[in-house]
Amino acid sequence: MDWSQSLRLIAPEETLSIAGLVLLLVAAWGGDKASRLISILAVAALVAASALVAPALCGGAMGPDTSAFFGQFYADAFASYAKILIYISAAATLVIAPAFFERYNAMRAEFPVLVIFAALGMGIMVSAGDLITLYIGLEMNSLAAYVLAAFLRNDGRSDEAGLKYFVLGALASGILLFGMSLTYGFTGTTSFSGINAALAGGLSNGALFGIVFMLAGLAFKISAVPFHMWTPDVYEGAPTPVTTFFATAPKVAALGLTMRVMLDAFGEQAAAWQQIVLFVSLASIVVGALGAIGQSNIKRLMAYSSINNVGFILVGLAVATPEGASAMLFYLAIYVAMSLGGFVAILMLKDENGNYVEEIAKLAGLSRTRPALALGIAMVMFSLAGIPPLFGFWGKFLVFKAAVDGGMIALAALGFAASVIGAFYYLKVVKIIYFDEPADVVKGESDIWHKLILLVSCVVISPLGFLLTKWLGSLTDAAALALFHAL
Amino acid sequence: MGGFPILSLMLLVPLAAAVACLFLDAKAARNLALIATLVDLLLGIVLWQNFDVGGAQWQFTERVELFSGFSYALGIDGIALLLIELSVFLMPICIGASWKSIDKRVGEYMGAFLLMETLMIGVFAAQDIFLFYMFFEAGLIPMYLIIGIWGGQDRIYAAYKFFLYTLLGSVLMLVAMLYMVNVAGTTDIPTLMVYDFDPSVQTWLWLAFFASFAVKMPMWPVHTWLPAAHVQAPTAGSVILAGVLLKMGGYGFIRFSLPMFPEASSTFASLIWGLSMAAVVITSLIALVQHDMKKLIAYSSVAHMAIVTIGLFAFNQQGLEGSMLMMLSHGLVSGALFLSVGIIYDRLHTREIDRYGGLSINMPRYALFFLLFTMASIGLPGTSGFVGEFLSLAGIYEVSTWTTLVCATGIILGAAYMLYLYRRVAFGEQKNADAAAMADLDVREYLMVVPLALAVLWMGIYPESFIAPMRDDIAALEARIARAAPEGDSKVAMGAATSKETPAHEETAAHEGAH
């Protein structure tokens, strides 16, 4: 493994780093006036990075050829798949953000730069082959994310969100670091392959604690129960485009990272953590569903919905099979489409003065005043509830199929039964939009980009999405295979 | 059958019209919906014409490997054919029933109905178990919207109840399906129908499917969503709910539970009988005391569907054919009854029975048709209700005389509540001036009730037309489940029967003796 080979493998990260640094300079010299240009360039950089990772995914890259810097970094199909989802989410965030921030005169030039750095950190997270790489990626993403959460500096809610995110994120990082240090102490190595080999013989109590603490730290990052409490507050308080970002890209990254750590580093000891994941998964499904019922703010509702969805995704991890991993990746892609659609629709809810409407009750009768937008929201809601023929069903279907095939029939039955609870609050939104008398609050014009992204998301989650199953399924299978053969 | 994908076309026509309806104004949407459903009806007739009775079991098959994990596979046997015919026959009538009574958000309404039609046909035509599930489950969305937007006073409660009840039933079924596909290694329904699952596993699978179909059917005691949904749904919604959606439960039993899990079906047969007996007696008695016409008919549906389930779980040809005919007949008759209620509801805007009276004086023609449908619901010979009820009871008589005895009381109770309803609505004196001033049927209403009346009589007088297409399929099903059939307690000697009508006649005496 020579350096040039390693440097070639991290080409997407290099692209993003250089783009981020250059754009930072542009921002410094050009000021906020250049923010639009910087956004466009940032999107271009993300597209370029996507193009660079695509070959690894299409070629199903795996094995030693994909490991850079002596196993610290993997540029395999799994990482590529997750990165493409991350870059798409980041680019979508950049596209939808200007219309929102311009209303508050808060579109600043560093916004795209922060998103780029966050995306870079997330790319490193999913490529990590070593605890140190993992931590660098995680913190790089988190630091950018804390700033993004508090981006509307004049808005108290946004500041609160940023602070909460920071304090709890720092706590989670601490827990994770503690777990990592235990793992290092009991295995004598920080590399995933080394940990895997060291644990092959058996699991000492210390290493078990290492696993538990690392899992707890990661659960914070993916907002899984019982470490989910920050999510509704942060989602509600953060500016909506940033919430869109939080609900998509970091979820993909943190789940990708969790998969890597659990299936690669601790893959030999699956029996030790499966039960934990099982509990976290079911608890997330149930708490996410029950917590959402009482919400009156649609962003909080979406926050609980994301907790609920993470629970479903973790079902695939609890099975600890390649099929389960593939199902998780597929679900993530659908989840990204649903979340993008959902949050963009929220961005389109404006009253006649252009203020953003977040009260669910004010959406009453939306189907009569804004039929197309209402249809979009209804599709997202039914899809999140997992009602066929919308595509959201397929994600749930795959994870539970993996669970049944892996012999966890009780888990599948419980999870499905709990999804009915979730259906209740999604239906509540549809009910308010379609059945209630119009409140006629939502009147504002929508940005063309918002319409476009909502349209694309809706096409993906519509029954037409099923035509993607073959192609996307082959990609996720390749990615999952790469994950299991990374060492 | 030739390569022409007629089933896909039948799915596509209403789907395309549904999308178009969303963009049209009220008048155009009505016309388009009517045209689309009539085209589908025509296609349905062509389908029936080309269906080769006695030919291959699965006809008009289409299979495209579009998706990973499941395939787009369609195909029908005689059982599915008849249920598809029922769906396409009722749809134009539903559109007609909504012609004037729906005046808000017509485009969306028609769109929802046409989508419903696509999904119903899809359920009956799907040959892939997951495709079936998607069609089966997707039907919840348009029906939820139909009840919730265009329904009556308590529509929102009813819509929720309908949705969540049915969803909880079906998700368990999905887990069972996943397991079956994992074990059998195929998603193809015809293959699964002949796959022998381990009897100990069958129990669980059967229960999971039962959770879904019993709710859909609906069987006592999980029927409570039905009166709520029926009462609140608009007329056409009730027609389609009673006419076709309930049949999905019966179809599910006949397509999945019985052939795939014969041993478990046999084990649980007494459970089904018990629930059915309870349903017949209890819901009939409840129907007797209703003040709301739609609620009364809804409870009568539960009682009639209980006759279907005992026929299905009689494990013999008579019972199975009887329950199929019962389903078809109930589809026509309960649809027609809801339509009859809708016709007078449109005039007086109340379903309160006491608000009517003496309608035979000012609406003689209406009273005539209403009487015919009432009689068909009771099961008067010559109407469709008789054939199905009789065959079902004859079928179960071979297996369990006690069940027959109890269920046969349903006929008496059915006569009681239906005649009581009819007396209060159509006979007696005209005690309400506004009800007495109502005009008789107009052309549009004639166009809806006459075809239904003809179909009811056709099925009652010459049921062979309907038995013929499914005879082989029922025989195949009977052969499949024969090994697990519970031993009967009546020991009926069949005599030297040549056709199945003959023994049925001979049994009449014994059957009459039972009640």
TrEMBL record, chain A:
<feature type="transmembrane region" description="Helical">
    <location>
        <begin position="448"/>
        <end position="468"/>
    </location>
</feature>
<keyword id="KW-1133">Transmembrane helix</keyword>
<feature type="transmembrane region" description="Helical">
    <location>
        <begin position="113"/>
        <end position="138"/>
    </location>
</feature>
<keyword id="KW-1278">Translocase</keyword>
<feature type="transmembrane region" description="Helical">
    <location>
        <begin position="372"/>
        <end position="394"/>
    </location>
</feature>
<keyword id="KW-0520">NAD</keyword>
<feature type="transmembrane region" description="Helical">
    <location>
        <begin position="15"/>
        <end position="31"/>
    </location>
</feature>
<dbReference type="GO" id="GO:0008137">
    <property type="term" value="F:NADH dehydrogenase (ubiquinone) activity"/>
</dbReference>
<dbReference type="InterPro" id="IPR010096">
    <property type="entry name" value="NADH-Q_OxRdtase_suN/2"/>
</dbReference>
<comment type="subunit">
    <text>NDH-1 is composed of 14 different subunits. Subunits NuoA, H, J, K, L, M, N constitute the membrane sector of the complex.</text>
</comment>
<dbReference type="GO" id="GO:0050136">
    <property type="term" value="F:NADH dehydrogenase (quinone) (non-electrogenic) activity"/>
</dbReference>
<protein>
    <recommendedName>
        <fullName>NADH-quinone oxidoreductase subunit N</fullName>
        <ecNumber>7.1.1.-</ecNumber>
    </recommendedName>
</protein>
<keyword id="KW-1003">Cell membrane</keyword>
<dbReference type="GO" id="GO:0048038">
    <property type="term" value="F:quinone binding"/>
</dbReference>
<keyword id="KW-0813">Transport</keyword>
<keyword id="KW-0472">Membrane</keyword>
<comment type="function">
    <text>NDH-1 shuttles electrons from NADH, via FMN and iron-sulfur (Fe-S) centers, to quinones in the respiratory chain. The immediate electron acceptor for the enzyme in this species is believed to be ubiquinone. Couples the redox reaction to proton translocation (for every two electrons transferred, four hydrogen ions are translocated across the cytoplasmic membrane), and thus conserves the redox energy in a proton gradient.</text>
</comment>
<dbReference type="GO" id="GO:0005886">
    <property type="term" value="C:plasma membrane"/>
</dbReference>
<dbReference type="InterPro" id="IPR001750">
    <property type="entry name" value="ND/Mrp_TM"/>
</dbReference>
<feature type="transmembrane region" description="Helical">
    <location>
        <begin position="328"/>
        <end position="349"/>
    </location>
</feature>
<keyword id="KW-0874">Quinone</keyword>
<feature type="transmembrane region" description="Helical">
    <location>
        <begin position="82"/>
        <end position="101"/>
    </location>
</feature>
Automatic annotation (TrEMBL), chain B:
<dbReference type="GO" id="GO:0042773">
    <property type="term" value="P:ATP synthesis coupled electron transport"/>
</dbReference>
<feature type="domain" description="NADH:quinone oxidoreductase/Mrp antiporter transmembrane">
    <location>
        <begin position="126"/>
        <end position="410"/>
    </location>
</feature>
<dbReference type="GO" id="GO:0016020">
    <property type="term" value="C:membrane"/>
</dbReference>
<keyword id="KW-0472">Membrane</keyword>
<keyword id="KW-0812">Transmembrane</keyword>
<feature type="transmembrane region" description="Helical">
    <location>
        <begin position="71"/>
        <end position="94"/>
    </location>
</feature>
<keyword id="KW-0520">NAD</keyword>
<feature type="transmembrane region" description="Helical">
    <location>
        <begin position="327"/>
        <end position="345"/>
    </location>
</feature>
<feature type="transmembrane region" description="Helical">
    <location>
        <begin position="366"/>
        <end position="387"/>
    </location>
</feature>
<dbReference type="GO" id="GO:0003954">
    <property type="term" value="F:NADH dehydrogenase activity"/>
</dbReference>
<keyword id="KW-1278">Translocase</keyword>
<keyword id="KW-1133">Transmembrane helix</keyword>
<dbReference type="GO" id="GO:0012505">
    <property type="term" value="C:endomembrane system"/>
</dbReference>
<dbReference type="GO" id="GO:0008137">
    <property type="term" value="F:NADH dehydrogenase (ubiquinone) activity"/>
</dbReference>
<feature type="transmembrane region" description="Helical">
    <location>
        <begin position="31"/>
        <end position="51"/>
    </location>
</feature>
<feature type="compositionally biased region" description="Basic and acidic residues">
    <location>
        <begin position="502"/>
        <end position="515"/>
    </location>
</feature>
<dbReference type="InterPro" id="IPR001750">
    <property type="entry name" value="ND/Mrp_TM"/>
</dbReference>
<feature type="transmembrane region" description="Helical">
    <location>
        <begin position="270"/>
        <end position="289"/>
    </location>
</feature>
<feature type="region of interest" description="Disordered">
    <location>
        <begin position="490"/>
        <end position="515"/>
    </location>
</feature>
<feature type="transmembrane region" description="Helical">
    <location>
        <begin position="443"/>
        <end position="461"/>
    </location>
</feature>
<dbReference type="Pfam" id="PF01059">
    <property type="entry name" value="Oxidored_q5_N"/>
</dbReference>
<comment type="similarity">
    <text>Belongs to the complex I subunit 4 family.</text>
</comment>
